[in-house]
Amino acid sequence: MTRRRIELRIAQGRKGWTGWKGWTDPAHPACPARPAYAVLGSHLILSLLAVAALSAAQGKQTFTGTITDNMCAEAGHSQMRMGPTDAECTIACIQAHDATYVLYDGKDVYRLSDQQTPEKFAAQKVKVIGTLDLKTKTIQVDSITAAK
Chain centroid to CA 33: how far? Predict the structure, then answer.
């Protein structure tokens, strides 16, 4: 394309022409719509944004709630009452009914990946640090400490 033809197309306002070096005229049959580096750049940016969003969603979080068993989580221990205290009832449900330790925050019940550490915190308010799997509502436990 000669310089004169390029100037004419700019003057005519041909759609797609920017006049910047490296960009091409999509109206011309031999020219691609955009150079390859522009397409790769946009894909790279979208990929980085997707990775950032996924890693932010799957980061470590702090959950606060009460350690209990999955059978009594929402209903409370008053119905089963397998021990004189909520802690003893929780431990008894775990042992007798193959229940699992969960964290109940007053609204949601979260399964805990660690089933040994919660025993010493049965029926206590705790802070659990870990990563939540939203599909299974399971917290991959890093640590459990008593809440203050």
Answer: 37
Domain boundaries, the chain: 3-57, 61-146
Residues, the chain = 148
Neighbours of 83 (CB within 10 A): 16
Q: For 97, phi and psi rounded to 5 degrees?
A: -115, 15
88 in the Ramachandran plot: left (φ > 0), alpha (ψ -120 to 50) or beta?
Answer: alpha
Domain 61-146 belongs in CATH node 3.30.43: no
Tokens 């009594």 sit on residue: 72
- pLDDT tens-digit readout, 46-79: 676 666 655 555 689 999 999 999 988 766 666 6
